[in-house]
Amino acid sequence: MAAAMGAQAQAQAELEAALLTAHNLQHTERLIRQHVEQVDGADFTVPEFDEGLEWINTDGPLRLHTDLSGKVVVLDFFTYCCINCMHLLPDLHALEQKYSHEDGLVVVGVHSAKFPNEKVLENIQSAILRYNITHPVVNDADANLWHELQVTCWPTLVILGPRGNRLFTLVGEGHREKLFSFISVTLKYYKEKGKIKDQGIKLKLYKDSLPPSSLFFLGKIAVDNSTGNLAIADSGHHRILVIEKHGQVRYSIGGKKSGWKDGSILEATFNSPQGILMKDNIIYVADTENHAIRKIDLTTEKVSTIAGTGVQGTDKEGGKMGVKQSISSPWDLAFGSIGHAEHNLLFIAMAGTHQIWVIFLEDGKLPGGTEYKKGTCVRFAGNGHEENRNNSYPRKAGFAQPSGLCVAPREWNCLFVADSESSTIRSVSLKDGAVKKLVGGERDPMNLFAFGDRDGIGINAKLQHPLGVAWNEKTKLLYVADSYNHKIKVINPKTKQCTTLAGTGKASNVIGPNFKQATFNEPGDVCVGENGNVLYVADTNNHQIKVLDLERETVSVLPVTFVDAVDSSQSIKPKKGSRLPKSAVSVQQTPLVVRPCQTLQFHLKIELPEGAKLTEGAPSFWALWAEDHEWLFVGQKIDGEIVNLENEIVFVVPAQVQTNELVLSIDVCLYFCNDDKKCQMKGISFKQPLEFSSTCEEIISTVDLPFNF
After folding, report:
1. Is there a single domain that holds both residue 162 and residue 69?
2. For residues 307 and 359, is the Cβ–Cβ distance under 8 A?
C-alpha cells in the first residue's frame, strides 16, 4: 500500500509541475487526461469503508466498491471546526450543482475530528445542518481512513475513479478551478470508456427529519446598554434580530435564504452572519460567508457594506478603503479606541486569515504612528500563519482562527481574543499592540492540540475551542464561551485564574436550578447586560438565548417571540392598523346596529390552553382599526397592553359618521408560555360589522369577545 501511495504521489507531483507550464485550457485538460490514463491502470485502490461507521444524509451505510462503483467519488476529509474546510464548501456545493449522481459524481464527506467533541455523531449532525451539507457524510471518528490514505491536514480532497482507484489529491483550500477541471476531464474520460453508471444514491437528508426552529444556530449576541435591547445573529436563518430584553422581536433583517444585498432593511440579505455590535441605533455585522462587514442603520432603515467585496480574499495586509478591500471570514467584532477618541475603531476577528484587523470609523492611527483615513480596513495583529505565537510586535504574533473579541478599557486597555484553534484566550494591547497569553494552550507556538477541560491558572488551565469572550466592567472579570466543553468559564485577568462558572461539560439542554446543573450545547458567544448583573449566552446548538443571573446564579431561557407579518421597519404595535401574523385566527361577529355618540364596551374574554400563562413582561396587546376609516378613531385610544385575560376595550361612535356601514377590527396579540417553558405568540382578529343609524344617543352597550384556545 505504501509503495502504491508513493507512486501515486509521484505521478501527481509530475502533473502539478506540468500544469504550471500549460498554455491554455485545452493544454490543461490534455495534461489531466494523460495523468488519468497513466494512473487508471495502476493499483491505487482505496480500501473499503470500515463496518459499523456512522453515516449521515443516507438511508444506511454506503459501500465504496458496490454502492459507489461506477462513480467518480470526491472524498472530502474535513473537521467541522476548521475555517479552511468551511471555505471549501462553496466549491463543493457548486460542483454538486453542476454534476449530479446521474452524471456520475458523488461527494462523500469524511469527518475526521480534531477535537474529542467533534467525534460525537450529534455534534457532526448539527454542523451538517449549520453548513447545509446535503451529500453523504461518514464519521471517521478513529481516523482510520485518514491514516490509510495518509491524509495529513484539513481539508484534503481525494478523487477516486469508478472502481475506487485513487486519481488525484488536493490539499487545502483555493483549488476551485483545478477541482472543476479534474472532475470534468475524469467524467468525460470514464464515460467514453463506458465505466460510468447512472444509478442514484439513496439519500436521506438529516435536515428533513427535524421540525422548523424559530432560531437556528445562533452566532454572536450584543446588547445596547442604553435601551437593554439585544441584537443577535440568527446565523442559520441568515438574518439579524433586534429583541427587547423580555424577548419580543422588534426587527428581523434578512431572510431564511442567504444572499448579499444592501438597501432597505426590508430587502437586505446576509449569508451566515456571526459577529454583531449595537450602539445608538447602529448595528455592525460580521457577514461571515459574504466575507464582508455590514452596517444596519435603524434610524434610516438602511443596510450598507463598509468593508469586503463579497468574495473571499487572500490579502493579509489590507490598507484599502471599505468595499475595495477584500477580507476573509470575519467572525466577531469589537469597538475600541486608540488615542482620545471613543469607539473610533472597529476590530475584526478575521478567522479566515488568522489575524485581527481593524476598520477606522474616524481618521486615526495605530500603535507605531501609522495614520489612516476614515473607512480604511487594515491588519492590526497577526502574521497570517496558523499559530499560537505571542510577541511584543503585533504583526509577528500568530493566531489560530480567532473567533471572539471584546475590549477591556481603562486599566487594561486591551483586546481579549478567543483564539479557537489554539484553545487559548489571548490579549492584545491597545497601547503598543503586544500580544500575550492569558490562559490555555502551551508554550510551543506550533502545537494547536493543547486542549482539554481543566480549571487552573494561565497555561495550566485548558479550554476546548472557545468561541466567545465578554468583559464585565462591574466585576472586572472576563467570561468565556468554552464551546466544545459546553461550559461558560470566568477568568480573573489579574491572577490568570480560570474557573467553570456554569455547565456540566456534557452537551444537553437542561435549564437547571443553578449554574452547575445547567447545560449548554456548543455555546458560541457570551454578552454582559443589565449593568453587569446578567450574562446572555448564545447556546448555539440548542438554538436558544440563555440568561445567567450573576447575582442569584440562576439560568433561564429568553422566550423569543415573533410577529410573522411585521415589516422590519415597523414597531410591533400598529401605526396604521394592526400588524398580526399571517396565522392569526379571524372571528366573525354578529352585525351590530349602532348610533352616533354610542359607547361600545368590548369585553375581551380569552381562555389559554391548560397550564399556560401570559408571558410576564412581554407586551401582549389589543388594537382597533378599520381600513380607510381613520376618522372613526380621532381622539380615541386605539391600542393598549394586555396584562390579564379579561379586558374592557372602549370605543365611542363619532357624533358624525361618514358611511352607512363598515367592519371594525379588534385585533389581539397574545404571548404566553406553558409549564415546560415553551412559549408562543397567537393572534386573533375579531371582525365586528357595524351599521349606523342617524340619531345621536349617548348610551353604553357591552359586546362580548370570547375566544377559547
Report:
1. yes
2. yes
- Domain C-terminal end among 209, 244, 261: 209
CATH code: domain of residue 686: 2.60.40
Residues 84 and 192 in one domain: yes
403-426: average pLDDT: 96
Q: Are residues 671 and 594 in the same domain?
A: yes
What's the rounded Cα separation, in Å, for the pair 166 and 72?
10
Q: Are residues 304 and 205 in the same domain?
A: no
Q: Which three cell numbers stand for residue 195?
A: 465505466
pLDDT at position 576 is 40
Q: b/e per residue, 385-403, with b = 16+ CB within 10 A?
A: bbbbbbbeebbebbbbbbb
pLDDT given for residue 577 in this prediction = 41
**Are both 248 and 380 inside the same structural domain?**
yes
SS3 577: coil
Q: Which of 135-144, 476-485, 530-539, 699-708 has the lowest mean pLDDT?
A: 699-708
Q: Where are the beta strands (DSSP E) in 190-337?
A: 221-223, 230-234, 239-243, 249-254, 263-264, 276-279, 282-287, 292-297, 302-307, 318-321, 330-336
pLDDT in tens, 31-60: 999 999 999 877 788 999 999 999 999 999
CA distance 363 to 376: 9
Flag whether 577 is in a domain: no
Q: Confirm whether 293 is domain-assigned.
A: yes
Higher local confidence (pLDDT), 170 or 646: 170
Burial 115-130 (b: 16+ CB within 10 A, else e): bebbbbeebbbbbbbb
pLDDT score recorded for residue 677: 57
Q: Which long-range contacts (CB under 8 A, 24 or more apart) does 295-302 make?
A: 296/240, 296/253, 296/265, 296/268, 298/242, 298/251, 298/265, 301/264, 301/265, 301/266, 301/568, 301/569, 302/262, 302/263, 302/264, 302/265
Position with higher pLDDT, 352 vs 706: 352
Residue 670 is assigned to a structural domain of this protein = yes
- Indicate the range of 305-309, 312-316, 471-475, 648-652 predicted with least confidence: 648-652
Which of the residue ranges 190-194, 282-286, 364-368 would you say has the lowest mean pLDDT?
364-368
Do residues 638 and 517 both lie within one domain? no
CATH number of the domain that residue 310 is part of: 2.120.10.30
Task: Report the length, in residues, of the chain.
Answer: 709
Taking the C-alpha atoms of residue 316 and residue 328, their distance in angstroms, rounded to an integer, is: 9
Q: Which domain holds residue 394?
A: 221-557
Quote the pLDDT of residue 582.
62
Q: Determine the angle formed by the axes of helices 25-40 and 2-19, rounding to 10 degrees.
A: 170
Q: What confidence category does residue 363 fall into, taking pLDDT thresholds of 50, 70 and 90?
A: very high
The pLDDT of residue 562:
72
Range with lowest mean pLDDT among 413-417, 616-620, 668-672: 616-620
| SS3 (DSSP) at 602 | strand
Answer yes or no: do 199 and 241 share one domain: no
Whether the bond between 155 and the residue before it is cis, its omega within 30 degrees of 0, is yes
Q: Are residues 19 and 152 located together in one domain of the fold?
A: yes
Contact 428, 435 (CB under 8 A): yes
CATH code, domain carrying 190: 3.40.30.10
* Of 188, 124, 126, 125, residue with least CA distance to 161: 188
What is the tally of structural domains in the chain? 3
Model confidence over 15-37: pLDDT tens digits?
999 999 988 999 999 999 999 99
Give the percent of the chain with pLDDT over 70: 95
| Domain edge (last residue) among 557, 576, 597 | 557
Examine the pLDDT at 202 and tell me if it is beyond 50. yes
Distance CA 574, CA 74 (A): 54
Place of cell 464548501: 89
Q: Within a domain: residue 579?
A: no
**Pairwise CA distance, residues 537 & 467, whole Å:** 12
Say how many CA atoms lie within 13 Å of 248 toward its Cβ.
19
Q: Report which secondary-structure segment, H or E, holds 525.
A: strand 525-529
Question: What is the rounded CA–CA span in Å between residue 137 and residue 54?
Answer: 9
